[in-house]
């Protein structure tokens, strides 16, 4: 069957203002008449719910309320499940409707137009479902087609008004879905969803109850999801403590499951009573534990559920057992699973095993690896490491299991090394890469996304569920960008779609380098105070200031966009785009300006006060916007939904500020890139009086800061002593409003004298000590009041014939930096090749060896003969031992027997294997997930200056190579690698 479902089904052409009698056109709303919706009372409750949602959606678009009727009219929308709709059964029997494409399929539906199917019906728009959910999905597919977003309630996306709605509908089959069970897990709901429901949306219960769940289930139906793990923190009553909850779930055809810490649908945090039940231990108190399991199995016997088997301790902790040896724990866990399955069998009329899941997470994974025997029909649900990197997937043997496999994935997390509970900061391309990989290794039974409070995870939720519905629309990384563009088009119109897409891609790229909630450099469990940033102030253009500028550009862009968004889209734009961007930018600015404040104070800059004020301004902006979200947006609809300081961690506080010692004299301060100390005119042979050397091959520029050392007004002037020195500004005035200014110094390479004409580089010189024949010196004079300062300028401008037409990478100040996607050439391996992943990595792209299923190559002879290889030409002026630093995206090994390895060599040297794998929650793993980067190093000997070729070989497929830094001894401390040194 041809599955032609598209990720974004809302096409502008589906809503037209004219009507012709084309056989595939159907008038939903027309001036002369409107369609009637026909469902069957014998069909499932969810079909009735979906039909009423469609009626309301059509009303939002057109102002016309369609009738839900059993009577025929000239134009009818007929929706039903095979075997449950009298009229559709009749048409199938008469041969007017073909049910074979959807019959006996899982969640498969067709939509088509029938012309004159009976004497009193001129046109019928038919939705035929293989089961109850399929029929509901089909009705809500029509909602999309009339222009209503799945987020119409949860993000207040209001549709554009239309006088008429005429759908163009070719016969299409939708399904089967790529993943059988697809859904979300509400978690860490304490600060948003639970408070909003208890105090605002469902105060009659004072909790997340059936009214709240009904709106959640409606959203899931609109997103073609079918599975749900309910909220389970202590602030929320257990899902089954409210009888209406399970009835509501069944009405919406939701399959209820539970997390790894909630066996048999039991919320241990809320439901285990120590006074009446004793200790929550299976080795000493199994009967009371089984009683709880029995009661839940009885309550849920008539409902669709997935039962998590196994057992952990309370509060997401290890299971308490009497003996400490692993084999005893394995045997006890096997007994737990056996008893749980017996309980389920005894509560099933069919005596068949209901869907069950086993989550090998934390210590349970250890037990599984130690030989725990798991029945074949149980689904293995693998997990990520809580930060978006899947720990393990099914090996070839496990891929054949009858129960299959699935994935539990996070875009929100509470725990070490640090929470990220406020904003969505998981890169969509990373999620795509990991979930596509999971699908490739047959994890296709269950996909669950831990999305915290739902808001503000809207886009990633939809992407996750769209992938689960039809993975064929997401074959490569560029498809994620297309999906984002289609999403932006649907929500805000074609006019702004590209701007919004570009804006959010930059948002994702910045968050990938450091999530906003990690900007205090603190950790949790235990909670630590804020620490100094790893971003450098003084090298490579000042990482702190560059990040400030990048986020300021986001703020400027989103504010311009907001002013141009249509009135009916303003509330949605605020929730889906504006608030997340402003929140992330402001949290970054708060800390980045605080770091600038501290650094400025250490140099005696009066501007320390300015940066303190900017930090507080960003802090107040978060409070202001969150207050608007909670109190004013939609007249208080979302009161209490947004908390911008979950757990009140140090990252959310106002940083402490520092101020310089009082200076009695109004004077000019000068600070140069590359030096922590300011330029001191009274110091003989100062180390801070010369800019880093300018390289003709990289054509770099450097900054000079001029600043006040005391409040007042001061004029300054800068005079280059050579016409080839270019300054972004040559004079100015500093005062309280502008206490400092940054100048950029660059070189006019057409004017600077060239060095001697040489065939190749000099032998083994320190780049900072280039011989006079390759170096040109001059200076910039700074004048203010009665003081003069001189800043040296040195230019490396040789004339090497070897580099005349050279297009590779070149040494600059003792290092070479390469973006992995910019290879000089590549060579395919026996069964694999390198491909570029767009949108993932510090440079906006990374390189990966595919397909993932090929065998690793570990022996050096096999690496040379069978592995694909990337080649990078580079040119150096020094030689000797160098460090080859490879930065990778910190993924994990796919399963035992595979790793996260590549190999490197220079020229004809043998490959040296580099391994990025980490073990458990080690210090390296913590560093990696906080930075979204793993860096490993290999040593190589370069015996001469000049041209060389770096080779990066595949060892394990699937390793994501991001950047490369060849350090010849010149790389200074920085958070990220310096910019690429490419001619």
From TrEMBL:
Domain annotation Gylcosyl hydrolase 115 C-terminal: ranges: 808-980
GO biological process: carbohydrate metabolic process
Transmembrane parts of this sequence: none
InterPro entries assigned to the protein according to its UniProt record, in alphabetical order: GH115, GH115_C, GH115_sf, Hex-like_dom2
Keywords: Hydrolase
UniProt GO MF annotations: hydrolase activity
Pfam families in the record: GH115_C, Glyco_hydro_115
Source species, domain of life: Bacteria
PANTHER family named among the record's database cross-references: GYLCOSYL HYDROLASE 115 C-TERMINAL DOMAIN-CONTAINING PROTEIN (PTHR37842:SF2), PTHR37842
Protein name (record): Glycosyl hydrolase 115 family protein
Organism: Aestuariibaculum sediminum
